[in-house]
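RESIDUES AND SHAPES:
===
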Amino acid sequence: MNLRRHFTLATAGIAMTWLAAAGVSQTAQAAEVMMVMATLSAAQEVPPNPSTGTGELTGQFDPATHTLSYQVTYSGLTGPVKMGHFHGPAPLGQNAGVAVAFAPPLDSPIKGTVVLTTEQEMALLAGHWYVNLHTAENPKGEVRGQVMAH
């Protein structure tokens, strides 16, 4: 092995040892993709309604690209979904304006990808976003669920 390569490998090894001792992984600069989820129900609407519909949000948030990919499934609603959105910022039990609207088609499953602003990202990660599905019978929202990231 030539001296230059040996020195480079030794230097890299020392740097890795120092980073590990400091509690820093090799991928410290790369943020981990987080899972997002929500369980939707009429009881979470503000105010609640008598619908027996249910739904679920599953997805991923990539902090490196600020990209949220999601899928919303639902069943048992009083009619077709007329509108669907992420709302926020709002803690559990409070209402907020639309943060991101779902693009048609709104049949189950609703799928999408969106790049978030810094403010939207902060609200999402703080648990201050919720999913709301609106129908003709429940125009303010039939089922809703607070989004949690982990």
Residues 1-29 have pLDDT under 50 and may be disordered.
